[in-house]
Amino acid sequence: MAMATSDRIRALVTDNEIVVFMKGVPAAPQCGFSAGVVKVLDAIGRPYVGVNVLDDPFLREGIKEYSDWPTLPQVYVRGEFIGGCDIVRDMYAAGELQALLAGQSA
Amino acid sequence: MPMDATEIERRITAAFPDADVLMVDMAGDGDHWAARVTCAAFAGKSRIVQHKMVYAAIGADMGHELHALALQTFVPAVPPTTPAT
Fold this sequence. Notes:
The complex is a heterodimer. Helix content of chain A is 49%, strand content 20%. Chain A has helices at residues 5-15, 32-44, 57-67, 85-94, 96-102, and strands at residues 18-22, 24-25, 28-29, 49-52, 74-77, 80-83. In chain A, α2 (32-44) runs parallel beside α4 (85-94). By secondary structure, chain B is an alpha+beta fold. Chain B is 27% helix and 21% strand. Chain B has two helices and three strands; from the N terminus they run αββαβ. Chain B has a three-stranded mixed β-sheet with strand order 1-2-3. In chain B, β2, α2 and β3 form a beta-alpha-beta unit. Chain B is globular and about 40 Å long. Chain A binds chain B through residues 64, 68-71, 81-83, 86-87, 90-91, and chain B through 46-48, 51-52, 61-63, 67, 70-72. Chain B: This is BolA family transcriptional regulator. Chain B: It comes from Novosphingobium decolorationis. Chain B: InterPro entries: BolA, BolA-like_sf, BolA/IbaG_stress_morph_reg.
């Protein structure tokens, strides 16, 4: 019996501190927005997990329902959806993302 | 077909009459817009919630029509209800 997509997503974002659902993989993003998020996360230098939704149509649609957010990429920190490319870039520019990631994981 | 910037601005202002909306043509092609929205209603809300408020106001299928809209939301430095000192 396969896990429901929402349960898979919950497990991914709970088991890993930083997760990005993206088009492509961190080493080879397939979309400019995904590339932008990877650039920010790489600059911060904390380990993160990239999930390639192009490999999985269930995840590609399921993640949008999970977050009630219609676009990719989507970045999760400690289980919480924090935003896509624009928000992550703005948070990085304001120092908010660094502050969030500097906190100890629960 | 992307939504016209004037229409985007009109819808945001209709939903948030006190909002300050600035539309910037990012590429000079009339297709890639950045909207900078400053509104007291954003105070105390996460950026995701602020953005969802704006997208709801626009009421478009942002996954398609608005994928090229870069959005920035701001809380006014001095809320309109607070007299400047």
